[in-house]
Design a protein that fits this description.
With about 110 residues, the protein is mainly α. Helix content is about 95%, strand content about 0%.
Length: about 110
């Protein structure tokens, strides 16, 4: 029974800490950095176009396309990690419920034997 209480308290602790981990600050910063770099490249492209620097504008466009692909990958990865974390939370809650149900069953069985 003490083992179940330890497991239950551990599970509660993990449940409380996991949502904070799912939305970690570095991933938000990385995504924000992506958008900032995209904006800077778009500005450089406009400047190059206004100066008639078509080769430079094309090179910047290629860099922007590659950056957008990386940013999309980062965004989808964050989304995947968030889904994984939510599913882990569901599993931990189910394990906690199972431990509580087993404890209740043991209590009921022990009462009937008395």
């Amino acid at each position: 029974m003490k083992l179940h209480l330890c497991l239950a308290s551990l599970a509660v602790g993990l449940l409380v800490s996991m949502p904070a981990n799912a939305q970690s600050e570095p991933s938000k910063k990385t995504e924000a950095d992506c958008y900032a770099r995209q904006a800077a490249l778009e500005k450089d492209m406009r400047d190059a176009r206004s100066r008639g620097q078509m080769l430079r504008r094309r090179q910047l466009q290629e860099s922007l396309d590659a950056l957008r692909a990386r940013c999309d990958e980062i965004a989808s990865k964050d989304t995947h990690e968030a889904r994984v974390m939510r599913q882990k939370n569901v599993i931990m809650q189910l394990r906690l419920d199972l431990a509580n149900a087993e404890e209740e069953l043991q209590r009921i069985v022990s009462e009937s034997k008395k």
